[in-house]
Amino acid sequence: MGEPRVVFDHVWKQFARGERHDSLRDLIPSLIRRVTGRRQEGGAEPGGGRPDAFWALQDVTFEVRAGEALGIIGRNGAGKSTILKLLTRILKPTRGTRNLTGRTGALIEVAAGFHPDLTGRENVYLQGAIMGMRRAEIAAHFDEIVSFADLERFIDTPVKRYSSGMNARLGFSIAAHLSPDVLLIDEVLSVGDMAFQEKCQARMKQFRADGVAIVFVSHHLPAVAQLCSHVLLLEGGRPLRMGAPGDVIAAYCRGTGASDRDEVAIAATLRANRRKGVDAFEIEPGERLTLDVTLDFHLEVERATVGVVVWDLARELYVYGASSDSIGIPMVKAGRGETKAYTFCFDANLTRGLYALEVSVFDHDRHEFLGRVRGIRHFQVVERVTFDGVANLYLNGREVSAHTDRSAPLQALAR
Description:
Elements: E1 6-16, H1 24-36, E2 53-64, E3 69-73, H2 80-87, E4 95-100, E5 104-107, H3 120-130, H4 135-149, H5 164-176, E6 182-186, H6 194-209, E7 213-217, H7 221-227, E8 230-235, E9 238-243, H8 245-256, E10 264-272, E11 282-283, E12 288-297, E13 301-312, E14 317-323, E15 332-334, E16 339-347, E17 353-363, E18 368-381, H9 408-414
Parallel strand pairs: 3-7, 3-8, 5-6, 6-7, 11-18
Antiparallel strand pairs: 1-2, 1-4, 8-9, 10-12, 12-16, 13-14, 13-15, 13-17, 17-18
Helix pairs in contact: 3-4, 3-5, 4-5
């Protein structure tokens, strides 16, 4: 696939709480404070050995080639935004190197460059110029930009009259009509309504098909799973795992769902009756899933139940929950050191998205959870037909001929 277009080579980044000198914006105030003899309390140069210095990134390495998309995921504060700032040259590394080859576009804070008193038309040219597009290039794409944002009727209205969604749509549309070699994306695929989000994702997939190298930072795991060829998981500024989207997202889900109790150790595997060649974590709506659960008890219990919950990760929505006693499994009785195993089956009548499974053990005598692990397994529902909502109710219908007698269709159906 040729030489990599994005190289991040053993990069470390250190900050000092209270003072930074990594960009012109930070350097000028710092110089003024030095000239006037004023310093921020607790300030320190990165790398100066002061106790207020800390590492935001530690030895991070990755490459992205043409037609590849790297997803970067992790909790808040993991270092995702720091990587983007390093790639956009807002910051410079403390150690290591980063290099980008070719024209770079950034979909970050897409409406940040808009002037509120200018019209949408004027802001298209302003924002395009900020992104490095020539005026002739902007003019050539102008109609496409406006049509993509669905703002034809409002393009000559000052953007201060726009809703937040209209601003976001226009900003994304401008950036999406660049012709970049490298594209940096930060959470912008969640702008607008569902229909516009689908257009955004389709546009990003087209960029990949056209050979653009993409770095995508997001908390929106379904979008990461659908768009990216590989994923990097960060934790505390360190690279925790790099690999296929399904494997890395599964590791992230398990990490975010670790139990804070150790009276019962919970393990689980997920199986599906899928077509040959389909990824292990991808299923179709309505497919039968089998969840095998193993419990290792570290104390004696007389009356416990096993709970299974399905969460929609994109919406942080509780989708479904049931306990073992509600489906006819007797109360769990186990001694210290004993292992119990259970199998649960269910039909995933869900619309497309990424879902996580939670497994818990509840002691009815102690009235407390002995163990609960959210994200112990996850699965992705894929489909070609767009459904709204969470559940797939398999809606079907047929056209009924119109008659002057309004009861006729009902009579026909009744027969």
